[in-house]
Amino acid sequence: MSYFVIAVAVLVMISVLTSFRPSTRQKQQMVLRRYANERGLHVEIVADAVTDQKGSSPTAVRYLLPWTAKNIRHDDQRHWLLVRGQRGKLSPWEGWCWFQQEAPKDCHRSISRALDKMPSSVNAVCSNSFGLGAYWPEKGKVEEIDQIAEGLRIISRNIKTD
Questions:
Q1: Nearest to 140 by CA among 12, 33, 4
Q2: CA of residue 134 relative to chain centroid, distance
Q3: 157-160 long-range contacts, Cβ below 8 Å, gap at least 24?
Q4: Among 24, 31, 79, 139, which is least packed, fewest CB within 10 Å?
Q5: Mind listing the pLDDT tens digit for each residue in 94-130?
Q6: Which residues contact 10 (CB under 8 A, 6 or more apart)?
Q7: Strand, coil or helix: what is 84?
Q8: Cβ atoms 150, 122 nearer than 8 A
């Protein structure tokens, strides 16, 4: 009987210790986030793109390209959110809608080129006071991070600051 109790105790301890190890999915997320950071992107755990507001529970991941000194002058006209789906105001791109504020017309061409570059799993693109962001479910490969970074850089290079 005492051997049985000891065996159960050992199994419980092993079970507890293995629960501290990251899962395969968590390991993959760490690889993706580290890779994104090496490419100059910040990874943020945020509320869903459509409900991105204070007090909301974090449910999405936003890959953010911070503003550089070249485009540091950023005003409220540059705050916009483009979401995949039918919720919001129609945009020039099929399957995408503006949510709240629309990007200035002079950005539309670069946004179009960026959407063509980005993986189809990106479900929103935004501009805010911190930079340009893409909401991505982190279910792809590291190559998709390169596509996201390139798409955000296309928009960033073409934003007029005056």
A1: 33
A2: 4
A3: 157/110, 158/107, 158/109, 158/110, 159/71, 159/78, 159/107, 159/110, 159/127, 160/106
A4: 24
A5: 999 998 888 988 889 999 999 999 999 999 999 988 8
A6: none
A7: strand
A8: no
In this structure, what are the phi and psi dihedrals at residue 125, rounded to the nearest 5 degrees?
A: -135, 140
* Phi, psi values for residue 45, rounded to 5°: -90, 115
65-75 pLDDT per residue, tens? 998 765 555 55
DSSP state of 38: H
Q: Which residue has the tokens 């974090």?
A: 58
Reduced to 3 states (helix: H, G, I; strand: E, B; else coil), residue 62 is strand
pLDDT in tens, 46-97: 877 766 455 555 578 999 999 876 555 555 457 899 999 888 898 999 999 9
**Of 67, 65, 66, 101, nearest in space to 82 by CA:** 101
Rounded distance between C-alpha atoms, residue 156 and residue 101, angstroms: 18
Nearest residue to 146 via CA among 35, 31, 28: 35
